[in-house]
């Protein structure tokens, strides 16, 4: 009887020992074996190459860091043009190409308008709101080194006076021969 | 019931010895696991510097790619469309996981970091890794499969908060794991 008990305890201990060894080996050998490739990245914050600034029409609010803005314009039943709704300033970053892309909108059928970029002598249409649709030209406009260009809202007219039209666009900027680009958010509010 | 304490003590010693041995075995396997990094090139995966490699400061050293010059303005999104590429030069598809090892530094000034992977052979989006979002590290991507002779570009999208300054920086370490 005593021998049997001793054997049982010994067998249990052997079984535990074997299980411990097997679990350690199997866990490492079959559970976690990978070939690895490393990816290390350092990211830093830099001064904006381009900043946004208020302009003659006094229709915009510029937010912290001067990299986002809201333009508020009262649309009426009479067609109006606001040539200087926002200034876009190149801070000595070399020549850049810039364009507007729509991001989101609501109640867009309330107004018609054309949004352009210009420097008083040349211009390029960017976005057109008409009949409840919005189209973008995807045409880059040249922003020369240390230059300032303007965002203009042309031929703005309301189709109805209900609610407010909100349009969010990206200002996309890049160097002429690069595919690296930067996006700022500009919000239009047509009241 | 009688217990042979002398023999039991011997087995207890054996048990402790077994645990010690197994620990050493695990350490050895860990070493092999790290040594496995050498094997990736043998598995036909290779990093390539992309079209934006110069802007991004891409350097490739064996199986490690480093992007040391990723910059962005406060409250704007900087997009590096093609800083680094992954090429499967082999004859069969390879399945891999993309894991976020660490995100350290001035993370309170970060809004988000996304990596979008595009297959350059057909321009399809293969996956988006949310490296940082909503003030927290994102989730790993598993089970990605790159077809043989295909190249994926890793597009980085970085957005700093409006309050970030030029003294703020972040370090991100990722691992591409190929189960074997």
Account of the 3D structure:
The complex is a heterodimer of chains A (191) and B (180). With 191 residues, chain A is α+β, with helices and mostly antiparallel strands. Helices cover 16% and strands 52% of the residues of chain A. Chain A has one helix at residues 2-31; strands at residues 34-45, 50-53, 60-62, 69-73, 80-90, 96-106, 111-118, 123-130, 133-136, 141-143, 148-158, 165-174, 181-190. In chain A, the strands form two sheets. A six-stranded antiparallel sheet of chain A has the order 2-5-11-7-8-9, with no helix packed on it. Chain B is α+β, with helices and mostly antiparallel strands. The chains are: A alpha+beta (191), B alpha+beta (180). At the A-B interface, helix 1, strand 1 and strand 13 of A face helix 1, strand 3, strand 4, strand 10 and strand 11 of B. Strand 1 (34-45) of chain A pairs parallel with strand 3 (64-72) of chain B, so a sheet runs across the interface.
Please summarize what this structure is.
The complex is a heterodimer of chains A (191) and B (180). Chain A has 191 residues and is of the alpha+beta class. Chain A has one helix at 2-31; strands spanning 34-45, 50-53, 60-62, 69-73, 80-90, 96-106, 111-118, 123-130, 133-136, 141-143, 148-158, 165-174, 181-190.
Please bin the fraction of helical residues of chain A: 10-25%
Beta fraction of chain B: over 45%
Tally of helical runs of chain A: 1
Shape annotation of chain B: extended
The greatest inter-chain interface is formed by:
A-B, 49 and 81 residues
Provide the CATH top-level class of the largest domain in chain B: Mainly Beta
Low-confidence stretches of chain A: 26-31
Q: Remind me, CATH topology of the largest domain in chain B?
A: Jelly Rolls
Judged by helices, strands and strand pairing, the structural class of chain A is alpha+beta
């Amino acid at each position: 009887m005593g021998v049997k008990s001793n054997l049982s305890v010994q067998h249990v201990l052997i079984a535990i020992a074997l299980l411990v060894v097997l679990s350690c080996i199997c866990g490492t050998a079959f559970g976690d074996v990978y070939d690895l490739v490393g990816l290390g990245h350092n990211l830093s914050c830099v001064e904006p190459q381009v900043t946004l600034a208020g302009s003659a029409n006094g229709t915009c609010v510029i937010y912290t860091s001067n990299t986002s803005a809201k333009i508020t314009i009262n649309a009426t039943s009479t067609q109006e043009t606001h040539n200087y709704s926002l200034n876009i300033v190149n801070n000595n970053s070399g020549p850049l190409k810039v364009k507007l892309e729509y991001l989101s909108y609501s109640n867009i059928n309330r107004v018609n308008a054309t949004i352009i970029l210009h420097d008083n002598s040349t211009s390029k249409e960017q976005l057109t709101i008409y009949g409840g649709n919005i189209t973008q030209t995807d045409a880059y406009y040249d922003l020369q080194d240390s230059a300032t260009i303007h965002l203009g809202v042309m031929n703005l007219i309301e189709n109805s006076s209900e609610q407010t039209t909100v349009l969010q666009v990206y200002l996309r900027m890049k160097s002429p021969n690069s595919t690296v680009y930067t996006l700022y958010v500009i919000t239009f509010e047509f009241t | 019931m009688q217990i042979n304490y002398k023999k039991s003590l011997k087995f207890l010693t054996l048990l402790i010895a077994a645990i010690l041995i197994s620990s050493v075995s695990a350490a050895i396997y860990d070493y092999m696991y790290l040594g496995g990094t050498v094997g990736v090139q043998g598995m036909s995966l290779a990093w390539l510097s992309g079209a934006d490699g110069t802007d991004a400061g891409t350097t490739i050293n064996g199986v490690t790619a480093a992007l040391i010059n990723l910059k962005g303005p406060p409250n704007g999104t900087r997009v590096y469309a093609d800083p680094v590429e992954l090429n499967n030069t082999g004859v069969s598809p390879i399945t891999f996981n993309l894991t976020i090892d660490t995100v350290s530094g001035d993370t309170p000034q970060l809004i988000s970091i996304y990596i979008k992977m595009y297959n350059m052979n057909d321009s399809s989006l293969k996956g988006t890794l949310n490296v940082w979002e909503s003030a927290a590290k994102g989730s790993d991507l598993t089970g990605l499969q790159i077809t043989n002779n295909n190249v994926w570009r890793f597009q980085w999208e970085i957005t700093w908060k409006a309050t970030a300054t030029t003294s703020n920086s972040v370090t991100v370490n990722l691992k591409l794991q190929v189960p074997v």
